[in-house]
Amino acid sequence: MKRKLLLIPFLLGAVFNSTAQKKLTNQEIINSWCSSKEKRNTEKDSIHISFIQEVNKKVIELIDSLGRGNVDSILIYSKSYPGSYILNKPCFTTPYPEYIYVIWPVNGELNFKTIAGNCESGVGQLRSSEIFSYLAANKEDIINACIMPVILGAQRSTNKSIKYSMSMIDHEPNYSLVFKSGKIYRQLNFAESFLQNKKSLFWKYNLNLKAIYLWNLLEAEIGKSDKF
Questions:
Q1: Distances (CA, A) of 215 to 26, 44, 73, 128, 160
Q2: What is the pTM of this model?
Q3: Regarding beta strands 174-181 and 184-191, do their DSSP bridges make them parallel or antiparallel, or are they unpaired?
């Protein structure tokens, strides 16, 4: 009799937990996470390329200058390295380095300018035509991408709230892609672990995104040529 009484609380607890929480499928997690990110269109003054106000201002001034030259479509690619120690890097007022590439089309080719803290390069030109053609052919898929963080699982409770089990790293490379079309900007942010942590439910999902393929093209072309 005692044995039965001991089992009752356990069974009740198991039933309660199974009804109180529901484990979400991968697609349900994507839908719930990305729906909260739907309103990603923003105005120029609301975009955040750098944590340093002066650097943000420099990027905005370059965008305005290109606009006066009738450049309507701009791609901004930035990367930063929190936790990296800066040694003899006079360009940077940040505690870690960050590089921003402003890219725009000119007569079927792509020009770019590098901004690194207080320093900036002259105008260069991308050698690869694949970046321009790939972006043109896949623009909608790229700008509407939802890059998933490192999520290990998720559960929905009876009150419809969702609890995510996630892995986060304080100091790792961070990346951003900002697309400008007219007065509208769309920004995609992601970190290195989003693409490398194989424990994430969305490791392969992210690697198959067209936005990430574009990022790989950018890295191969200009991302490894930091001069500052």
A1: 24, 22, 17, 13, 35
A2: 0.82
A3: antiparallel
For 166-198, the pLDDT digits (tens) are 998 888 999 999 998 777 788 899 999 999 999
- Round the CA-based radius of gyration of the chain to a whole number and report it: 22
Q: Which residues pair with 102 in a beta bridge?
A: 76, 113
Question: Residue written as tokens 């001991």?
Answer: 6
pLDDT tens column, 104-123: 988 878 899 998 888 888 88
Quickly list H helices, the chain.
2-20, 26-35, 53-68, 130-137, 139-143, 192-196, 203-207, 210-218
Q: Which two tokens stand for residue 196?
A: 């490398």
Assess contact for 63 and 75: CB atoms under 8 A. Answer: no
